[in-house]
Amino acid sequence: MAKRSYYDIDDILAGQERVPCFLRTDLDGLGSAGSGGSSKVHRNSRWTLPYWMADRLNEEDYLDMQVSPVFSKQANRMYAASPESMQLRAICQHYYQFGLQLGEMVPEIPRVLYDMYMTRIQKIARIAQQGNNVEALDFVQSLDRTEERLLRLCQQSQNAITNWHQNKAYTLRKAPVIDK
Fold this sequence. Notes:
This protein is elongated. Helix 6 (about 110-130) runs parallel beside helix 8. The chain is mainly α. It is built from 8 helices and 5 strands, in the order H-E-E-E-E-H-E-H-H-H-H-H-H.
């Protein structure tokens, strides 16, 4: 089971991503989790369940969890071919968080995440330094939540550097006690 942070809302939301599963045994009470009418789910049926649920049931050998289509071999080849053009927000809003959770299941995922992140981080840093333009707007709209946070931090850092260069960052003032 992947280690998740109990208090991290992005980690919780990433765990809500659905993964395809193949049930090994009959399960009572799972029917309400899918679109089925009854509460009993029969073995050898296919379901898509939230990752947090599927991971736990997989651990208990009730089902076989399969790789999410977001990280299929075909999708990984597309990401490797053109990481900057990927619309990660449309694919999975918590792409990196979800990928880290699936990392134990599929050994290739950490490498895919690393390669994509290292390519996209360069463009994020460039956008933070240059400011907003039309090309940047399209790319910014494609960022997942992790990249959005990184962009905000880069922009704040760039503003702090600009303020420092313009001597606006820190000013010395007399203490109020001296004015008396």
